[in-house]
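Risk register update: the risk that structure generation would not scale has been downgraded. Supporting records follow, first protein first.
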Amino acid sequence: MSPKLITPGEPPEKTFLTDGLEGLQHNVLTGTLEGLVKWARQKSLWPATFGLACCAIEMMAAGGAHYDLARYGMEVFRASPRQADLMIVAGRVSQKMAPVLRQIHDQMMEPKWVISMGVCASSGGMFNNYALVQGVDQVVPVDVYVPGCPPGPQTLMHGILTLYDSIQTGDLTRRRDANGGGAGIEVAAVDGQPEPVSLGTPSRGHVTVLEQA
């Protein structure tokens, strides 16, 4: 196929990559209704503005310019639960906060998804006492568990993308039906491991460097 010659002054040919929908030569898309619904659900996740503890700082960092959560169309954290369909439980859940969390979850529109961010939300973490809920799955059904204390923005975004893929493939709804609740998908931490902490101890004007095991 020979390349098309463009004469000077002639406007370039429109393509989908340069002109979007106007560049489509045939404005007809075919597919199944189920696939279209899954695609719409995947691309329309709006998180609720909801944070509980230090994990919420990492969630805010994920929405900042450095990690740019807006690449996935999720930069709009909705202040009203009736406009959100994704709850990110970022932090420990106290017994007093559990009814509030459940009420916010009930007010969110269907279908709705839940991500448990951090070990405190997933299992109570280091706070094994009467004041805190030992796992948010006792209050709301959890679809994705994100590990870490706290998990960094990379791990949170990994969990969000896992949720994306599970919605698109239908694996999430199949897991929900099998579990009778949340999908319960566990993801791996992808944040970089911290460097060993060096402690300096003065010894006759010199410093002895000790590496923490």
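Supporting record for the second protein:
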Amino acid sequence: MKLKFRKQRDVMWRKLLGILTLFSFLPYFSICQNKLRENGWYHILSGQTDSISREPIVTTKDFIALKLDTDYFGKYVISGQISNYKRKKWAEETGKATGRQIAFIFNDSVITNPRVNCSIESGAFQITSVLDEKLPDIYKQLKQEKIDSIATLFKGWEKDSLYFTMPPEHRDSIRMAIDYWEAYTWIKLTTKPDEHYWYSITDSAEYKKLEEALKEELEKSNLSSRASDYMQSDTYQMYKMYIYNNPEYINLMFQCFLFKKIRGLYSYLIDDIIQTKYPSAPSIRTYVDKTDNSDDERFAVYEWQRQIWVLMNKDKQTDDPRDI
């Protein structure tokens, strides 16, 4: 009886393995020839000749943890974690892909293409393959790719810190755990000070009062859907003129409710307020309209803010060259 059961079980697993092999590699030959994509996770698009999306969901530099492990059957598995900056995007995009497949691309080959059951809010992922013996080498290359991305950011920096006295494996561990986008922002902050506005505001009472009044005004029921109508209100004009006369408070504006829901009406108001003070300022809409998720939108806003800080610093330097 036991022997018969084992034979049935072995037949079942052989059939399952055949199904998984077909499942994992059916898309490969039709979608990955002569294409150049970053290593990472991608949407699989139905009804298209090239069924892998051109833009990635996340790439290797968005990982903050990678671990080579084995599953219940002794097969290799790569487990990973998405960085804080990209975690919301990962949750949103896997939510969109619920019931469909996504693919992990490595060196322009589909390594795995699992079906997504639900939004993955934890930021976790696993890379599996029927050719699991290839995963240890893939793991090493992915880990080195992330480490190199951080090393590139800090290329040319002084090497006299405690960090450079550590053994190489310790330094690699730190690089692996660093959020690439947080490091990128910090590097920009330190290497391009003109793209950041240093300020010290000791009294924000009047500003806060005007901001709260504007928030209440915009929350009122209004039949108009045009931003120009809202701009005519006395409350809005008072807030706008206060920012115009006290540009350092733009930094508090960047933290206000207008930036919590930035598309639509608020983006037009932000442009009007900023461009009244700085006519050459770029529109915030040209930055956020290119994004399709909250994480990329947040970074787009930061890139726009850097351009505004440049204008603020130029204005400040014109008023008093000693300030910068």
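Strands lie at 40-43, 58-59, 63-70, 76-82, 102-106, 109-112, 124-127. On this basis the risk owner (M.S.) recommends closing the item.
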